[in-house]
Amino acid sequence: MANSKMPTDKELRERGYMTSDEFVDRLIPGLKEYLRRNWGRGATELNHPEDLISNVSVYIDVAYHVIVDFGVTEKE
User: Fold this and answer.
1) For position 8, what pLDDT does the model report?
2) Distances in whole angstroms, Cα of residue 9 to Cα of each of 16, 31, 33
3) CA 64 to chain centroid
């Protein structure tokens, strides 16, 4: 039987792993800034949820491609 040692939390974190709360905490500030700058109306302007979610979708899609293309850790 093969030796299947599970990676430690430290090893996983070195590979960019994080908790869902950590992920959301890192995502939200940039997303808020993106929406404010994209709409150019300020944080107090009312917007329709369909418009907001379509912009969130674009932001998330771009973020996904950046992570896939560039990774989340330094290249060795």
Assistant:
1) 95
2) 11, 28, 31
3) 7
d(CA 64, CA 66): 5
Higher pLDDT, 1 or 72: 72
Q: What angle do CA 38, 19, 34 make, to 5 degrees?
A: 5
The reply to whether the predicted model has a pTM over 0.85 is: no
CA atoms within 13 A on the CB side of 2: 3
Judge whether 39 and 45 are in contact, CB under 8 Å: yes
Q: Are 43 and 29 in contact (CB under 8 A)?
A: no
- What residue segments make up the domains of the chain, in order of their start? 46-76
Q: Which of 27-31, 38-42, 70-74 reaches the highest mean pLDDT?
A: 27-31
Please name the helix (run of DSSP H) or strand (run of DSSP E) that holds residue 73, with its range, or none.
none
